[in-house]
Amino acid sequence: MRAVFSNVTEYFDSQRGRWLREQLAGILVAQLIVALLTAILAAAFQWLPIQHVTIVYLIPVIVATLRWGAIPAVFAGLSGIAAVAYFFYAPFFDMRVHSPAQIADILLFVTVATITGRIAVAVRKAKIRAQAESLRDALIGSVSHGLRTPLAAITGSASILAQSRAIEGDEHLSSLVHVIRDEADRLNGDIQNLLDATRISSEGLQPHMTWVDPEDLISGALASKRRALAERPVNLSIADDLPLAYIDATLIQSALSQVIENAIKYSPPGSPITIKAGQVGAMIRIDVSDKGVGVPNSELEKIFERFYRGSVHATNIPGSGLGLWIARALIDACGGRIRAVVPDHGPGTTFRIELPVKTQPAADENADE
Amino acid sequence: MNDSRPSVLIIDDDPQIRRFLRAGFDLEHFAVHEEPTGQGGLRAATLRRSDLIVVDLNLPDMDGSNIVERLRAWSTVPIIVLSVRASDEDKVKLLESGADDYVVKPFSMVELVARARAAIRRQTRTDHGEMIVKSGPLSIDLANRAVYLDEERVTLSPKEYRLLQVLAKHAGNVVTHNTLMKEVWGVRHLDNSHYLRILVRRLRGKIEKNPKRPQILVSELGVGYRLTNGNEAR
């Protein structure tokens, strides 16, 4: 018996249990409000015999929906109808409903209660979401500020040390300073990924679309990875007269940076990175290829899943499994797509980004003036 | 203290950031003054001559953009903003309210000093009426409206020259898309941002060794364009 009892208390302390407890409390309070209203109406009935008091019973329905949700609201509605039928429809103190007017009244009540209930549910959900969102934004803001400020002090200090003559001349010391800077950079990248991932999964992305020169996307992404690319030959081949893309420049540039970083990470040091851009059909295609060991056919799609790490590298190269998932979300948001393909010849992986070519805007008629 | 040293006023609430900025600017031969608050910073800016102001965007007592606006009301002193997580809109707003440039934390001292020096040069050029701007192999003679690439005269269309001229006046610092649109096409064409993309492409074809990998006229996506000083790490 005691075991059962402790099981029950344990259940009530669990998350599901807490929910059940709240619902029960909601039903109880809704019933109390119905009882209270009935008592007041019954007292008023002595002087003002109105039969159609059903509208008053919308109050507990709305209160219950806003406070506890749908289930207590349904109970509130049912007991409201019961109270009306029993106390206020002639003949009194009889559950049965007699006149068509009363039936119409109850139907009307149910309709209005359903509609207001639905509105109240929407209001309640919006309220909860707004609370969660503001909490999350505050959290993201403080995480970002709280972690980035010390990181800025580390990166900044290391950058000064790296330049000082005393350290520049010493092989060991300068390599240590570079470790500090590179690891601080990596940490900063991880923080950015976490922030991006939160942004994507919680609020969705709202791209700010403008006309962008794809050449700027590529040189911007290369510039953002210039230190990681320092020891790498970059083969760049961009078609002439590439059309402008109608995209969010910042989103696509960070996606492209992710893909380039990925290529650097999973290919041997010193091996070349190739970036090819051109128009293929109605798409602007940007191919980023590396000379790594490549991705098995079975994993070409999976590597874009959140937290998925390729089987070949999961153990020997650190990573969060977020990068490509983020890149895909950013590109999808702008109406483009990304996939991994096996290159035509040689080892490695090609990441293929495709952005739709929109009807190009009218050119400046007076461009030569 | 040597009077010829340029002076920098640093407004940032984080003591560690101030510490490395002080060290960094000191090594670059700046005279450094620090203020931890916005109010203190504004006061210090009026009380002492500064050749450069470096201000953090998120100060506990004041918004950095507010400080920029208030400084710009009476001063043309070069201002560089430090920001942690500014959106493109924030950056554009800062630049259009008068900041010369921004760097996003974490940044390297080299980057900040390059931006700062460019902004200071902008100021000295105006003060001394200097009319020649150099960016790597490119040289722009603002007085004679002539552009030279490796000593060779480059022929530019009037709009190409106008674009280059605006960028040259702020050489080394970013100029927003809107500012460029206004200066080259006027306010009526602010929506036609693609004019700018196409003009930039044409201009690059004339002044860049490899227009596909620009070194002189670089893009700050979502914000604007920058004429580099040629030797900047990029």
Describe this structure in words.
The complex is a heterodimer of chains A (369) and B (234). With 369 residues, chain A is an alpha+beta fold. Among the domains of chain A are: 97 residues, no CATH class; 147 residues, Heat Shock Protein 90, CATH 3.30.565. Helices cover 58% and strands 10% of the residues of chain A. In chain A, the strands form 2 sheets. Chain A has a 5-stranded mixed β-sheet. In chain A, helix 3 runs antiparallel to helix 4. Chain A starts with a helix and ends in a 13-residue tail after the last strand. Chain B has 234 residues and is an alpha/beta fold. Chain B has 8 helices and 12 strands. In chain B, helix 6 crosses helix 7 and helix 6 packs across helix 8. Chain B folds into 2 domains: 121 residues, Rossmann fold (3-Layer(aba) Sandwich), CATH 3.40.50; 97 residues, Arc Repressor Mutant, subunit A (Orthogonal Bundle). In chain B, the strands form 3 sheets. Chain B has a 5-stranded parallel β-sheet with strand order 2-1-3-4-5, sandwiched between helices. Chain B is globular, with a radius of gyration of 18 Å. In chain B, a hairpin with a 2-residue loop joins strand 8 and strand 9. Chains A and B meet through helix 5, helix 7, strand 1, helix 8 and helix 9 of A and helix 1, helix 5, helix 8 and strand 11 of B.
